[in-house]
Amino acid sequence: MIRVWLPAHLRTLARVASEVTVEVDGRATLRSVLDALEARYPVLRGTLRDHITLERRPYVRFFACEQDLSLDSPDTPLADAVANGAEPLLIIGAIAGG
């Protein structure tokens, strides 16, 4: 099971109280985790990635094991600590402005 931490507004949208867990087939990648997350919570489709291109939405960031994965290829394998559930995948809504 892969643990995923969602920001408050997406937890509200998905109607979950805290972090969620998803299962992926094969090697855990950002793409496979997001696919599993959107399959389990269809209301999240389009909130993290574009519907057509599946590219990360602006102001959405992905972190795991204290590393920013936002600009990595979505097919890069996630760290073993994330894949085995020891560490969560964090989805963060970035803030901009001044």
What does this 3D model show about the protein?
Helices cover 22% and strands 19% of the residues. The protein is of the alpha+beta class and 98 residues long. The protein has a single domain (2-93), classed as Roll (Ubiquitin-like (UB roll)). β3 and β4 form a beta hairpin. It is globular, with a radius of gyration of 13 Å. The relative contact order is 0.24. The model has no long low-confidence stretch (mean pLDDT 94).
Order of helices and strands: EHEHEEHE
- Second-tier CATH architecture: Roll
CATH class, please? Answer: Alpha Beta
Strand residue content: 15-25%
Could you please say which CATH topology applies here? Ubiquitin-like (UB roll)
The order of strands across the largest sheet is 2-1-5-3-4
User: What count of structural domains?
Assistant: 1
Low-confidence stretches: none
Overall geometry: globular
Average of pLDDT: 94
Straight-line distance between termini = 39 Å
